[in-house]
Amino acid sequence: MKKYVLVTFTAVFGLLLTVMPIRIHQAVYAQDNTGKDFVAPAVFQAAGPDIASIQSSVDAFRKAVDPDNQINNNNPGPLAIGRREINWDGGGNVLTTTDPVTPFNTFLNTRGSQFTTPGIGLTQAPPSGGPQGGLATLFNNPTYATTFKTFSPFRLFTPVGSNVTNALFFIPGSNGNTPATVRGFGVVFTDVDQPDGSGPSQDKSNRGASTLVEFFGADGGLLFSSTVPASPGDGGQSFLGITFNDARIASVRITAGNVALGPDDDAKHDVVAMDDFIYGEPQALP
What we know:
About 10% of the residues lie in helices and about 25% in strands. By secondary structure, the protein is an alpha+beta fold. It has one domain (about 20-285). A 6-stranded antiparallel β-sheet has the order 1-2-12-9-14-3, with helices on one face. The chain has a 5-stranded antiparallel β-sheet with strand order 4-7-13-10-11. Strand 10 (about 210-215) and strand 11 (about 220-225) form a beta hairpin. The radius of gyration is 17 Å and the shape is globular.
């Protein structure tokens, strides 16, 4: 398998930050160009050294985005209730490293989501191990075996040649032919080191934090953005998710770390990988 060696530089600071679910004041984050009256989202975020540090926030987000607690898996839509989850693990016990591709359409028909990157492509891989050696071999960097830890075993998700991932939504079963929106979207990250003291923001700038998630409406207008809380040390876990009262999120842009994977994670580099994606059942655009 090809190896992609990528070297750039950015800053890293370690800070433990855990934030319980909060609601953001509407007037601060309202957007005039979304085509809808703005409703402030509920924001769920947490960070810490292990899975237990974020588990309660992840569970609270699941309940908020899907009060019926119905995981729709690969069932075709349209469905009125439920949620979709992607853990990148291929049903469990899969250690294969997939070749980077964009667009990443593995879950386009089954779960109504498509992922792209301006880089080489997106890959599913364990931190290390498996027949292709995981991220440690893909990026020719053995330190990744301990830099990253999974939330759900055994694989992570990351762009190659970029730190940006874009998500679009469609009705499951439509083969990407029926655009859709979702009422909430959440992401688990591993090894977000660089902190930010300002919290969620309408501002698209991450103001020094390494990791940022931006949510857009069907017209392309920014609905909301937030930096992701950080945790010190290797393999920390972070979570950020938001929910609205209705399905208004048409796309999401994730900036994971201040640098694409390749260099060591140290005082001048914050490399970040992603794990579980959780989102509301895609609903067809009117």
